[in-house]
Amino acid sequence: MESAWIPLALSLKVALWATGLNLLLGVGVAYWLARHRFAGRELVDALLTLPMVLPPTVLGYYLLVVIGSNGWLGRWLDESFGINLIFTWQAAVIAATIVAFPLVLKSARAALENVDPQLEQAARVLGLGEAAVFFRVSLPLAWRGILAGLLLAFARALGEFGATLMVAGSIPGRTQTLSIAVYEAVQAGQDDLAAFLVMIISTTCVAVLLGAGWLAPRRPGLR
Fold first, then answer.
1. Domain extents for the chain?
2. Measured between alpha carbons, how far is 146 from 44 in angstroms, rounded to an integer?
3. What are 66-101's pLDDT values in tens digits?
């Protein structure tokens, strides 16, 4: 069972990095969509939500087109800085971030749209700038929904498999995350190891879902 702790540690690192990136990207984009009305806003929202419904292999293919050795971004990084993302844990972070992004976006947008705009306007009248309004009014009122989305994104990133396998591979100790380790253990007939890994993932996800359910905003009068 000692071999189980290495992919667990890697999965936690990938999930934490992905959650941190989604905290910045997801909440930022959600605030922009919630506070600005423009033509095509819902189309933008739909495109950003695509990772939630697209097959993981399709996402993996798109990532290979972008960050692969022959991809426009991957080739530029390689030629300019000598950076090759494919088959690295950083590629796993990118895959997990994109897959989990819609969970943060949807939760954060809903939470921010439920903030009373009159409270924000009152803060502006009192002389607060947009950044101060966000951090001192909007964010404190929407934090439960945002945190619930982040917990769901963490669980999703922890269990990401398809896109991660395509761009990061399955290199033990380097890119083999927990979900990939389960697949490899089953293929190798290591049922005890697979069961142990599945128990870890399942317990963690149940705990995260309970936490997200407790944090989710409730209607008045409901507990």
1. 2-215
2. 20
3. 998 888 899 999 989 999 999 999 999 999 999 999
